[in-house]
Specification:
Number of strands: 13
Shape: globular
Largest sheet: 8 strands, mixed
Bound molecules: ligand MTE, molybdenum atom
Structural class: alpha+beta
Order of helices and strands: HHHEHHEEHEEHEEHEEEEHEEH
């Protein structure tokens, strides 16, 4: 995600939201971080992950989170699951640092109890929901989703949760609500990454209301039959399987229903590189690398042939209708 030069190699802040001081620091930070290059740098980290993993303290067995297998079309696959060790040891969670091993190493200090989320904005029933109540709001399902990072790697993860639409129904969005904003935790005490200006904190993501209401959009509390490890976004996060991974915000604290398309963190940081929709699309390249292929973490070696990236990450039959009539090269 990091390299931030535009097509011509220079940084052109386009968004008026960015202060000039912010741009300056962010640019320096990004140049420093990504001195080496684009997506390849991320994969190289994976190739050397053993070295990193050996330094990271491993959390013990986490609390079981039982769930029934989901009957939802698209929510299962015969593909091999990614090893738990990779899914919980190779992470993007910039609040804890930009290295893939940082979240596993530093997120253990994240206080996740008590936890609540506030639901605000254009809804008839705004309010605060305690984690304990959210856990009981709807039956837990296991959903096996492909997860495709914009950097060109992917995993297959058995998540546990229920459709976000269950919560949305309860709060009764008003007719004027068109988008949903997700605000995630920004806690200076436990998150060393917040001292970096690589993104504006808190990490902010968003979906169109109909995307948020789509049954595949998962309010996620667990993975591999256990509660979420902190590095994967405990105690609750979003998983939107047909979009690049950065759309799936971790450790959510606020859900806001709004009329206008939210200014999300990655779009604000690099508008020429990241779009609001960010649907997985092998035909629309990132400005600095192709999105036609990907490597499955744990299976596809760094130097072998890549596997083909699928339209909407393979969920086209389920979500294609959401974008009928839209020019996906324009709304990327
Ligand atoms: N709050 C927050 N959420 C985040 C991120 C982040 O840096 N901060 N990174 C995103 C990115 S780029 C990816 S690929 C996924 C990774 O999720 P995983 O580590 O559970 O595989 O989380 C997303 N959610
Ligand atoms: Mo990502």
């Amino acid at each position: 995600m990091l390299v931030k030069s535009s097509r011509d190699g220079f940084f052109h802040p386009a968004s008026s939201d960015i202060t000039s001081a912010g741009v300056y620091h962010r640019r320096r930070e990004l140049l420093r971080l990504m001195a080496g290059g684009a997506a390849g740098a991320a994969l190289a980290t994976w190739a050397s992950r053993e070295a990193h993993a050996s330094q990271a303290p491993r959390p013990g067995k986490l609390a079981a989170l039982p769930a029934r297998a989901s009957a939802l079309p698209g929510a299962s696959t015969v593909e091999k699951l990614t090893d738990y060790k990779d899914a919980s040891g190779y992470n993007n969670f910039y609040e804890f640092g930009v290295d893939k091993a940082d979240p596993a190493r530093y997120a253990q200090a994240l206080p996740t109890s008590p936890w609540s989320i506030s639901v605000e904005g254009l809804v008839r029933k705004p309010g605060t929901f305690a984690l304990e109540d959210l856990l009981k709001l709807a039956p837990m399902e296991e959903r096996i989703y492909r997860m495709r990072c914009v950097e060109g790697w992917s995993m297959v993860i058995p998540w546990v949760g229920y459709s976000l639409s269950e919560l949305i129904r309860k709060v009764e969005p008003l007719g004027s609500a068109k988008y949903v904003e997700f605000v995630t935790l920004a806690d200076r005490k436990s998150m060393p990454g917040l001292s970096s200006s690589v993104l504006d904190w808190p990490y902010l993501e968003g979906l169109r209301l109909d995307e948020a209401q789509h049954p595949l959009t998962l309010l996620t509390f667990g993975m591999y039959g256990e509660v979420l490890p902190k590095q994967n976004g405990a105690p609750l996060r979003l998983v939107v399987p047909w979009k690049y991974g950065f759309k799936s915000g971790k450790s959510v604290v606020k859900i806001r229903f709004v009329e206008k398309q939210p200014a999300t963190s990655w779009v604000v940081a690099a508008p020429q590189e990241y779009g609001f929709y960010s649907n997985v699309n092998p035909m629309v390249d990132h400005p600095r690398w192709s999105q036609a292929g990907e490597r499955r973490i744990g299976e596809d070696g760094l130097f072998g042939k890549k596997r083909k990236t699928l339209m909407f990450n393979g969920y086209e039959a389920q979500v294609g209708q959401l974008y009928a009539g839209m020019d996906l090269r324009k709304f990327w």
